[in-house]
Each structure stands twice: as structure tokens, then as C-alpha cells.
Amino acid sequence: MYIFCTFVGMNYASKYLENAVNEMSQLPGIGKRTALRLVLHLLKQPESQTTALARALVDLKTEIRFCKQCHNISDTDICEICNDTQRNKKIICIVEDVRDVMAIENTSQYKGVYHILGGKISPIDGVGPGDLSITSLVKKVEEGAVDELIFALSSTMEGDTTNFYIYKQIEKYNIKTSTIARGIGVGDELEYADEVTLGRSILHRVPFENSLKVN
Amino acid sequence: MYIFCTFVGMNYASKYLENAVNEMSQLPGIGKRTALRLVLHLLKQPESQTTALARALVDLKTEIRFCKQCHNISDTDICEICNDTQRNKKIICIVEDVRDVMAIENTSQYKGVYHILGGKISPIDGVGPGDLSITSLVKKVEEGAVDELIFALSSTMEGDTTNFYIYKQIEKYNIKTSTIARGIGVGDELEYADEVTLGRSILHRVPFENSLKVN
């Protein structure tokens, strides 16, 4: 409370400084104090750095498009992944957002395509099924363009709800569905794993020979 | 090392996204992962927010000036503090940077003016006396425009060195010099104070009546 009060009456000595701090502190996880530190840092750097940052931010909003097929970030109407002829378009991995695509792409283990929902059903945050790109996913299944759907949402209450909601809609089309494997992370110690994860990893154990097939 | 490697080959799906992340991660304390989070947040916000941020950053570099007298940040050639006729121009408080001015101004306890050095002497970081605005400070003293100099640099090796360097140069003019009081913070518990601070607070104890004069 005390620190908060101190900051309310902050004298920034310049309205341009104050403005920059206010705009910067709109970003998530950046408070006024951090914003001030960042802005004063920029002030010490050559003008080119600030201009490049400003330019990059403007370009971000004006130039970036979203793939018409999978809703991934893209510079073109159809993203690189959906355009890749080497990929199996009939296997679709459902993820929450772009970062999940990047994470999975980084593993180089997946050769199907994606479908980005843009979030998960969360009544508390005011996100309903209508706010997510579920209709276009169901349409893909309906058109018979899908062999397998991989659910890769986070295993939270919201993630599970979203999985179930989608599952109910595509159930009748009798396609293969799967979820990514949950278990003890590679290299993790058993004693530090939580009970739910450890329990599932025993229930969903895999044949030993499978574990030898790394990559 | 693993996380680092993972990020080097990150597939951003868009060169505009990658560019924005790279520029954002130039800021101190913002890594690629945080930069990505911030940039994806901006992507979800209305375009006006990004434009406002970009505009504020450009304005920052083009519009902000530094006060010709005290080197404080200012929208004008002479800053508000130096222009304030209510303030005693003959008492100068020497501080490292603009944030220190803001912190002291916030207390509303100081009615003199400031002199911002722009750092402290630190050979390790390649900062010598020539990189700081010491000459202009000595000139003020030389011209007889100063009654008292208050040293308010941080009490580190570098801060003490800088204080001493300045002191040596203005010693001969026989003006009053002081440093801000070091001691146990108001509201702090004695048992958690470090020995040096507690030791100094006993050595530099003040008459009890003084403690009654709060503000």
C-alpha cells in the first residue's frame, strides 16, 4: 500500500517520460517501476534502437495475419505448416495458442498439422465456446478431412472442459482421437513428482520396447 | 544450456513476430521468452494500444531534453525544479540518476536543487570521471553559486569513490558538504539490520528532540 501511494504521485519531470512509462506498464507483468527502468534504459541507447522497437511493434499489428486453415500466426494467408506438402493434413493437433505450436515444432517430432483454438473455455474469464475457433474445427471433421485429432490442451479444469466439449461434437464422426502422454518428465526424479502425474504414469505405462525407440 | 539451444532454433512462424521479439528482448531483464509473451499479448490487444506504445517510445527519444543546469530529464531547456523560484539554488544534492531525483522529490522534504552525475566512477564498467557531469558541478562551486553540497550517491565502493573524487576537487572552496543520513529505516526491526548500518546509526546518533520533529 505504501509503495503504491508513493507511485501515484510520482513526478516524472517530463510528460513524454510519463507517457512512455504509462504505455509500457500496460504490458502484462510490467509495473510502473519496471516500466520506468526500461524507459530510462531506452533513453540511454542510440535512437536507432528505439525506432527499431517502435517500428517492429507497429509492423506486428499491421503485417501479421492468421492462417485461414489453422489460425496460426503467419505472414501469408496460409501458414508455412499448412502449406508444407511433407505434412500429413489428416492428423490435427489441437492447441490453445501459438506458443504451444512453437513448443511442439521445436521437438521436430510431429509431422501433422495444427488447429489453434485461441484459448480454452473458461466461464470465470468470460471465455465461452463461441470465442474459440471450435466451429471451423468441427467443420474440418465433418468434411471428412481428418483421420486423427490429438488433444494437446493443458490438463487443467478449463483444458479438460474444452477437450470434452470438442469431443462431444466430433464423437459421432467416429474418427481417432488421442491426447498427448502425461507422465514423469524425461530426466525427472520420481520422488519429486506429484501423485496425480505419477499415478497416471503407472496406469498408462507403455511396453518397455517402446521406450527404446527414442526419436 | 538446453533451454538456450531450444530457443536458438525457435520457429516464430512470422518474420514480423520474430523481429518484434528480438527488439523487445534487447531491453534489460527481458529474455526471449518474456519478449514473446509480451508481443503475443500486444497482438491480442486493439491496434491503438500498440500504436500508442510505439508513438510514446519514439517521442521519448525525439522530445525529451536534459536540463542544462542539473542534467535532469526535462521537456524544456531548464527543468521544472531548476526553474522553481521557491527552491534554494544554493543547496545542491548530487545524485546518480533521474530515479534518485524522483525518489527524493516524492518525499517532499527537499527544497534545494539537484545535480545529476549520470552514474558513478566504476573502472570495471569503463566509467571514468570524464563520463560523468563532474566538471559542470565543480564549475558551479567555483563560481560561488553553491552554499552546500549534499552527497546522495549509493554507499557502495563506486559511490564512495565518486564522492571522494568530487570532494577532493571542491575541498579548496570551503563550502559546506554533507551526506544523507545512513541508519536503520523507519519502521525496521533492529535485529534484522546489518552490522555496518546499525553500527553507523549508533555512531551518528542524533539528539532525541530531533526525532520529535517529524516533517
From TrEMBL, chains A, B:
<keyword id="KW-0479">Metal-binding</keyword>
<dbReference type="Pfam" id="PF13662">
    <property type="entry name" value="Toprim_4"/>
</dbReference>
<keyword id="KW-0863">Zinc-finger</keyword>
<keyword id="KW-0862">Zinc</keyword>
<feature type="zinc finger region" description="C4-type">
    <location>
        <begin position="67"/>
        <end position="82"/>
    </location>
</feature>
<dbReference type="GO" id="GO:0003677">
    <property type="term" value="F:DNA binding"/>
</dbReference>
<keyword id="KW-0233">DNA recombination</keyword>
<dbReference type="InterPro" id="IPR006171">
    <property type="entry name" value="TOPRIM_dom"/>
</dbReference>
<dbReference type="Pfam" id="PF02132">
    <property type="entry name" value="RecR_ZnF"/>
</dbReference>
<comment type="function">
    <text>May play a role in DNA repair. It seems to be involved in an RecBC-independent recombinational process of DNA repair. It may act with RecF and RecO.</text>
</comment>
<dbReference type="GO" id="GO:0006281">
    <property type="term" value="P:DNA repair"/>
</dbReference>
<keyword id="KW-0227">DNA damage</keyword>
<protein>
    <recommendedName>
        <fullName>Recombination protein RecR</fullName>
    </recommendedName>
</protein>
<dbReference type="GO" id="GO:0006310">
    <property type="term" value="P:DNA recombination"/>
</dbReference>
<dbReference type="InterPro" id="IPR034137">
    <property type="entry name" value="TOPRIM_RecR"/>
</dbReference>
<keyword id="KW-0234">DNA repair</keyword>
<feature type="domain" description="Toprim">
    <location>
        <begin position="90"/>
        <end position="185"/>
    </location>
</feature>
<dbReference type="InterPro" id="IPR015967">
    <property type="entry name" value="Rcmb_RecR_Znf"/>
</dbReference>
<comment type="similarity">
    <text>Belongs to the RecR family.</text>
</comment>
<dbReference type="Pfam" id="PF21175">
    <property type="entry name" value="RecR_C"/>
</dbReference>
<dbReference type="InterPro" id="IPR000093">
    <property type="entry name" value="DNA_Rcmb_RecR"/>
</dbReference>
<dbReference type="InterPro" id="IPR023627">
    <property type="entry name" value="Rcmb_RecR"/>
</dbReference>
<dbReference type="Pfam" id="PF21176">
    <property type="entry name" value="RecR_HhH"/>
</dbReference>
<dbReference type="GO" id="GO:0008270">
    <property type="term" value="F:zinc ion binding"/>
</dbReference>
